Batch of 2 targets.
Target 1
Amino acid sequence: MRIIFEKRKSMSRKAMFLVPAGSFLISLILTAILLAIFKANPWATYVAMFKGAFGSWPNFTETLVKAIPLMLTGLGVLIAFRLKFWNIGAEGQLTFGGIAAAWVALFWSPNLPQWTVLPVAILMGMLAGALWAGIPALLKVRLKVDEVLTTLMLNYVAILFAEHLYYGPWRDPKGFGFPGTPPFPEFAWLPRIAGRAHMGLIFAIVLAVVIWFILNRTRWGFELKVIGNNPTAAQTQGIRIARNIMIALLFAGALSGLAGVCEVTGISRRLQQGLSIGYGYTAIIVAWLAQLNPIAAIFVALLIAALLVGGDQVQMMMGLPAAMGLVLQGMLLFPMLAGALFTEYKLRLIRSPKITDAATKQEQVAT
Amino acid sequence: MKKSGRITALAVIVFLALGFFAIQGLAPSTVAAKEPAKIAFIYVGPIGDLGWSWEHDRGRKMLEEKFGDKIKTTYIESVPEGPDAARVIRQYAMQGYKAVFATSFGYMDPMVEVARDFPKVYFEHCSGYKTAPNMSTYFGRMYQPRYLSGIVAGKMTKTNIIGYAAAFPIPEVIRGINAFTLGAQSVNPKVQVRVVWTNTWFDPVKEREAAVALLDAGADIIAQHQDTTEPQKAAQERGLMSIGYDSDMRGFVGDSVLVSPIWNWGAYYVDTVNAMLQGTWKTHQYWGGLKEGIVQLSAFSPKVPKDVQNMVMAKQKEILSGSWDVFHGPIVDQKGKQMVPAGGKMSDKDMLNMSFFVKGVVGKAGQ
């Protein structure tokens, strides 16, 4: 007997609502059991977590602060994933975007009119992110180099390069020898909307809508869909696969690069330790949970940001160890990812005797 | 149709959550007049690191013991350094905490930012250099016991190579390496101290790898500036010795840990919290040494010969009396350039900015 996953042809609208809601409920119940084992009141923990994320205006703005880079990198990852290009490199693309923005803010700004510094920083950051995604894309389409490896390895290159800069040539001379660049001039700061939540939120939402439109309403979006679903068909239809992968990946990299720009110009306002704290990897979860839908990615990013921010409360209010916060996040996400799988696929059992029958018959024919 | 259904479901979940917790958040929080003063600690690693964060938590417990029900302390572990920490610090400030202690260098800028918004909360930052009317810094002259431990290492190495697993090339760490090397060289001019940078305070795997690389390079004693006991364990597994750090690591690893320069944060925490409760707290930059008791040398392992122990204790007496300190001339750097002339002594400012290695260190003080 064999178990196979079969892609669902269609789904009732009811199931579309029930599956995510149901998996969320299962997540809550499983986590509650775990909490009970650790002698923490599950209800109180949930209340504390959600209060931490949404309970007050300042808390909510902090949730947004976390959500913005997840939204942008999530969008970057999902565009690549649509093409079955496994872009694990959003972290590096984000970092490189941050480096480029810092370069503009620190070294170009004296020679530029002040009002142009921020737009130029954004542009250069997006270009840098695009470059960082373009390298593995080129290697893939020209030399068939596995993109999982290249995108992942380039993360380390970008992060180490950033470290080299703020430990070495870009280190703040007034910083007592501590790592980190000097602070950016004020005109290079990305305006904040509420609390620490900055303009990046608007970029993310507008871009999500634009991407949704491109993917679903344009010829290019259709071509990408065909390449992702059936490369052979794409080839026979005369779609230029290599060119499309290149363009899509440059676009994806630019989005993650923008996330990096927003982080350095909107939050830290200098290049320093803590720019990349795993947003690029969490983006993969965002893309999957959103089922590669850009609009859904905005909401998923908000939800995951709430989990991350609310997770602090597990320690602060409930007095559980730090590892417990991470376990909770995993426990909450896991059934939701599984649920997402089951909305696309259904399980089917295949009885093995039939297969062996067929196989033996074939053997008999052969002999 | 299919996709939009899923998005609706997601949106419903998010907004239900929002609504629910907005209501929860409206419940008024009442603060009774005679509640104990709430004091929070922020740790960079888990308290189970048995090193840095463990020692800070020992200090926190000392506070609870000393002040009883006059205070109530709490802590949060494994908070990443950098902009993300601002959220955590802000959370405590908003929850009515009287004081927040941030115990890693990378919390400095976030703490300055939050301190500006909460003038009535006391902020204490360990190991940084920025202050505000309501924000102080505190640290210890760890270089003093490090010098003493260097004497032990210099006397007991057979290969004349001592390995040093070090976190970041910042003045705090460089000062420690220099002090240790000066101690070792004072009794054994042939000794060299080889440095491997890990670029992390807390990472058991990287800390171990650094120690293993040093052992492979011929080191027979491992010293360290990290947060955990892993380098000590790596040395012990090869039947070799080590010098601990942070806590008396002999208790966790065994007699192969010859001696440890250790922290005793409670000595400072009790004084500063007392000043807060009395209303006499003023912004300050605390930098106590062996004399103040915030840094100490642990008891010796029985493997350390009596004559070496006596030699160390004699030197400690000199430091305690104030007649001599570690960075008294003559001190030359790696290239033989004179940094402190004979009879001179380095100022606190120069010590806090230290960015060169003394003669005897093998490695680069930058990156």
Note: Chain B has twelve helices and 15 strands.
Target 2
Amino acid sequence: MDEDKRENIEALFHPKTVAVIGATSERKFGRITFENLLKNRGGIQVIPVNPKAKEILGVKCYPSVKNIPGEVDLAVVIVPAKAVLQVVRECVEKKVKTVILISGGFSEAGPEGRKLEEQVVEAVRGSKTRILGPNTLGVFIPRNAVNTTFFPEERFVKPKDGSIAFISQSGASAIAFMEAATFYEVGFSAFVGLGNEADLTETDFIEYFAEDPNTEVICLYLEKISDGHRFLEVCRKTSLKKPIVVLKAGRTGRGARAALSHTGSLAGFDRVADGAFKQCGIVRAMDETELLDYAVALGFQKPLRSSRIAILTFGGGAGVIATDLIEASQHLEMAELPEEVKEKLRGIVVPFASVNNPVDTTGNVTDEQVDRVLEVLYGTREVDGILAIIGLQIIYMGVELADLLAKWAKRGGKPMVVIGLGMGLTLQVVRRLMNLGVPAYPTVRRGVNALEALSQRGKYLKRLEKVGMEDSRRD
Amino acid sequence: MAWKILGEIKGRKNVPENLVKDLLRAYNIKTPEYRVISDVGDLENLDLPFPLALKLCSDRVLHKTDVGGVALNIQSLEELKEKLQEFNRRFPGEKFLVETMEAPGVELIVGLLDDSTFGLSIMVGLGGVFAEAFEDVTFRVIPIAREDAEEMLSELRGKRVLEGFRGIKVNKEEIVDLLLKVSKLGEETADHIKIETMDLNPVFAREKDTVVVDAKLVLKT
């Protein structure tokens, strides 16, 4: 990507000096953002800017960003909309690399706000200063605790460091999705709220995270795509390296041209986006649960090269439900276990266990037996991926089951997804698995859907190997 | 050849069907044989074999079936004259397309649409006249590769109809070729005309070939 733009984005996530313009000691957003930034763990200098204060929370305050001695990489702006233009002009003068406009009251608020937004963009034109926002929460980076949001410490349960970069056109919702996912130990490399995207857009960030060593998978919540052609081109290139998952909402807001043609009326429900996403390897999610579920699966596991799944379960029902879902899936099928494999399995499990697929060991099984069953399944050529369904309501197994499953998921050479049904010990195993880098889900459907995402990604990569490598090299 | 046709098409909004089909034929896309006529005087040297279809060919009426502007399975010159005179009365000053009736096949819809986000996109679906009821369609942004076209067909819920269902024979390769030709048409003409939307509906997919029976093209103005 463009080197200047890379530096602009770098300044958002790893700044050296941050000016908080509109910082205040009153209990307002300007104070919370300032406090949040002060708690960073990146050794980042945080300087308040407010013409009405000498110091804020014990930190020396400057009347303007221009008065701050030395370089400022990042300015976080929380002032009323009408004051933003002047502030941005001063940031340009100060050669601030990137400005986050937290302030609202721009294009989202009507024609006058739109005009103001255009003036703000005009103010940075020709300079090296770029803008994130306006009307955004900004960024949150778990690794160095850079946090420009105005969510107070005690209200925002922060996700841990991880490998998912989350780019969102709705900041508050994305933060809520992330917070909910912390229950299952989902970690993030970065969160970016795009706001009104007056300057930097979703595509700029996809391009950045494609090269970010801390990011394994890029996930996006989108309602609109500003430059469809560039978006597709960047996603196509990025998909070669990293998976992209998109939740594109607002699917039903169409149909204006319905009367003109049958094709036009059939394009509703975002069907063109469906096709476009497939062409550039994007895995599409339909709700926020799928979005993070797929991101976890794709971030933790290799794609499914083929789609034959073996189920390992300790109790019948869930295995049957999973079988139904797999058989009904366009992307998955149940593996046929050869006779000699079944014979090997019979030698491991109790006589009344089932060695067909699903392999149902029954609850009467030890860790050691599970280990040997997995060894057989991982050694079976006719199996491409493993779905392990666990519930620790039985007496024999312990939390160590997580380590056992993780061992095979890491070394076995075939992707594994775990479904953990239950709350007590099972939940502990699920969380431990997630911390060990094994995708684990609390319902059968979510586990099977995660396998589908791995299969979609695998099919796309296989197709690229067949035809697309030349195309992508030509780009 | 495509160049000359584009010259005639350019500047219009609703393109008359004969010109749309001329354009399709320039891309080796099969259509019925057709002639443009105005009144019975034009029937004297008509060199098309019966049965024939008579269709309103107007740049004012977009959905000709809705206004009763289509007569199918006309068996004789007498019948054709009669129908034409009736059409002349109902649609004064308009031109008509007379064309050969095609042997039926599995009915498909193929389309192009200028998507506001992604640009010109191609659609294929099952159903012909039922396409909007089934909603069994899939899109791709053009240009598409052969693999895209194949993938599109494999995504249709009713794909079995194209795979020998109940002895119905369809040449899938021909459908793939049609999609590639339509994609090429959309891509190559983009410098000359701005396509808003194109409907090829129905397309008959048959044992040996596919044929575009009805075609509609709307340009941006």
Note: The longest helix of chain B spans residues 172-189.
